[in-house]
Amino acid sequence: MGVKIESVPGINSEGFIQTELEKTVSLSCISEADEELVWLRNGAMVNLMEKNKKGRSSVCVTPVIYEDNDATFTCHLSRNTTVRDSVTLHVTYPPTLSGSEEVAVEDEAVLVLRCDIWANPPVSPVSWTLNGSAVDLFAGSFMLTNDGFTSQLTANRVDKSLHEGTYQCTTNSAIYGEHSKSFRVTVTEKTMKFPMMPMIAGLVVVCLTALLAVVSRWEKITKCCKERAGRRQRDNVTQRGFA
Questions:
Q1: Alpha carbons 4 and 196: distance in angstroms, whole number
Q2: Are the C-beta atoms of 167 and 183 separated by less than 8 Å?
Q3: What pLDDT is stored for residue 7 in this prediction?
Q4: pLDDT score of 183
Q5: pLDDT value at 63 more than 80
Q6: 20 to 30 A Cα–Cα from 142, which one of 29, 59, 95, 112?
């Protein structure tokens, strides 16, 4: 007695189900006898309704997400875990590159442009152009990095004559073809930035100095008033003595 998994879409000769993001995969496990079945996803048990356990059991994966790539579904007899069948999902997806973006950056500031190139199968290479021509990394003092998820183009000190214009990153997928995204970069005049922390510290010092001056002045005024009141009291006592 054995079990067998059937699916829509079908299983290829290597035991993989080829699918894409947002699609639906239907899995059915069939037992040669009317026995209880158990489903596992990457070794973790899948919760099933009672009426979906005996003889024929179905699992639906919808919508397919990134985390479903390379996920293995296994069906086995409840009474005998060695009687089993397995399939693995192979999820493909293109890079999310499209449209255009407006970027404003000040003269002498840092310019950072990023393209999301995460895809399955991976895309390579990633090309960058400026105004239709390949980006000259040396002439523009650019730094280009690629970690498999993001392609990043950086200029640490922007110069209007070198860095203003339309940039485009382009990838080519074996399955999904060419994808690209453009950036319209405008270099603006450098603005004077006031250091906030020193200004705040200076204002605090000025306020404290003024407050101390007021307190000191008030102590002097109070002392003077007390001295005058004391003299007046002594004068009154003297006058009453001679009366």
A1: 70
A2: yes
A3: 97
A4: 98
A5: yes
A6: 95
